[in-house]
């Protein structure tokens, strides 16, 4: 009888220990798991909404592009065309040596020095139209403007623009 009582006590102790472990460790973990599952379901439904929104958004065609080195003449032609439409008289337009990309830069830069004759409204319209060029990305680097000695209504403007180029090397 003593052995049976002792075995029963050991069995009851094991059950109490198992129940204690269950209550102390397992129940809180299951509660956390339930919370995380509900959070997962909420986030997943948001993901589905966002995914359907993204799929419904129209794709936008980007017209600006960084040019390759073989397309330089196209941009110079487009610059001249924009200027001519605005009434700009190009005295000179000289592409300079390409500046190789430096650390942290993504593109080679081709500086183009221009000397132009125009009135104030024409130069403002021309500079504003540089943003509308479809074949290149151009940034104004240097800009000086002085009155034309021959015509007081005109200005002589010297400016350097940076044309950004892809860094491809082509066989010559």
Fourth CATH level, the homologous superfamily of the largest domain: Ribosomal protein S6/Translation elongation factor EF1B
- Calculate Rg over CA atoms: 36 Å
The CATH first-level class of the largest domain comes to: Alpha Beta
Order of helices and strands: HHEEHEE
Strand-residue proportion: 15-25%
Arithmetic mean of pLDDT: 81
Overall structural domain count: 2
Distance between the termini: 104 Å
**What would the CATH topology of the largest domain be?**
Alpha-Beta Plaits
Largest sheet: 4 strands, antiparallel
How many DSSP H or I helices? 3
Kindly name the structural category.
alpha+beta
Strand order of the largest sheet: 1-2-4-3
CATH architecture term of the largest domain: 2-Layer Sandwich
What is the global morphology?
Answer: rod-shaped
Got a strand count? 4
Care to describe what's here?
This protein is 46% helix and 23% strand. It has helices at residues 2-56, 72-85, 120-129; strands at residues 89-95, 108-118, 138-147, 155-165. It is α+β, with helices and mostly antiparallel strands and 172 residues long. A four-stranded antiparallel β-sheet has the order 1-2-4-3. It has two domains: 1-60; 69-165, Ribosomal protein S6/Translation elongation factor EF1B (Alpha-Beta Plaits), CATH 3.30.70.
Would you spell out the secondary-structure blueprint of this structure?
Layout: H1 2-56, H2 72-85, E1 89-95, E2 108-118, H3 120-129, E3 138-147, E4 155-165
Antiparallel strand pairs: 1-2, 2-4, 3-4
Condensed summary:
The protein has helices spanning 2-56, 72-85, 120-129; strands spanning 89-95, 108-118, 138-147, 155-165.
């Amino acid at each position: 009888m003593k052995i049976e009582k002792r075995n029963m006590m050991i069995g009851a102790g094991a059950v109490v220990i198992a129940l204690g472990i269950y209550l102390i460790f397992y129940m809180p973990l299951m509660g956390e798991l339930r919370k995380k599952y509900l959070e997962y379901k909420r986030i997943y439904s948001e993901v589905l909404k966002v995914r359907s929104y993204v799929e419904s958004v129209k794709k936008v065609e980007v017209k600006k592009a960084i040019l390759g080195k073989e397309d330089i003449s196209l941009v110079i032609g487009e610059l001249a065309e924009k200027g001519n439409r605005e009434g700009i008289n190009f005295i000179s337009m000289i592409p300079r040596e390409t500046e190789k990309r430096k650390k942290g830069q993504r593109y080679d830069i081709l500086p183009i020095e221009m000397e132009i004759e125009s009135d104030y409204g024409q130069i403002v319209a021309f500079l504003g139209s540089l943003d509308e060029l479809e074949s290149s990305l151009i940034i104004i680097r240097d800009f000086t403007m002085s009155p034309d000695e021959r015509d007081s209504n005109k200005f002589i403007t010297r400016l350097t623009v940076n044309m950004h180029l892809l860094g491809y090397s082509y066989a010559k």
